[in-house]
Automatic annotation (TrEMBL):
Its EC number is 3.1.2.-. This is Hydroxyphenylacetyl-CoA thioesterase PaaI. Pfam families: 4HBT. GO terms for molecular function: hydrolase activity. It comes from the Bacteria. Keywords: Hydrolase. SUPFAM superfamilies: Thioesterase/thiol ester dehydrase-isomerase. It comes from Nitratireductor aquimarinus. It is an enzyme of class 3 (hydrolase). Coiled coil: none annotated.
Length: 145
């Protein structure tokens, strides 16, 4: 039986999530996945805050990077980051629920470009992230013939 693109995205995400200790340790939840897109979220807790009493930028980057990873790996191909950049727009506060929504901009050959917006629970933009991906070979799961 042929899997639909949505089923492929969901099975790829399930396989990745089972091994993604970093995102789980951070306290992320995988909220949605579809071909070329993914949504992850996390609540800013005390251990996520820095010396300014706001969410450490590294954790915001990690949340965005994880959403990017699930989006670009949604085609049952093993894909890694080639280059990422982030612009911090506003601080994340203790108790904020941050949501990272990744969407595919372009896929060509073995490369891809993905944008991720991180917002708080009020829809305030916290960060804008752009990720460039590279397919390295292999699959997350064996598809039935």
């Amino acid at each position: 039986m042929q899997l639909s693109p949505q089923e492929i995205a969901e099975r790829s995400a399930a396989a990745m999530w089972a091994r993604d200790d970093a995102s789980q340790w951070l306290g992320c939840s995988l909220d949605a996945v579809a071909p070329g897109s993914a949504t992850l979220s996390m609540t800013v807790e005390t251990h996520h805050t820095n010396g300014h009493d706001i969410c450490h930028g590294g954790y915001i980057f990690t949340l965005a990077d994880s959403a990017f990873a699930f989006a670009c790996n949604s085609y049952n191909q093993i894909v890694v980051a080639q280059h990422n950049s982030i612009t911090f727009v506003a601080p994340g506060a203790l108790g904020d629920r941050l949501t990272a929504v990744a969407r595919e901009v372009a896929r060509f050959g073995r490369s891809g470009i993905y944008d991720v917006r991180v917002e708080n629970q009020n829809g305030k933009v916290i960060a804008e992230f752009r990720g460039n991906s590279r397919v390295i070979g292999g699959k997350h799961f064996e598809e039935d013939a």
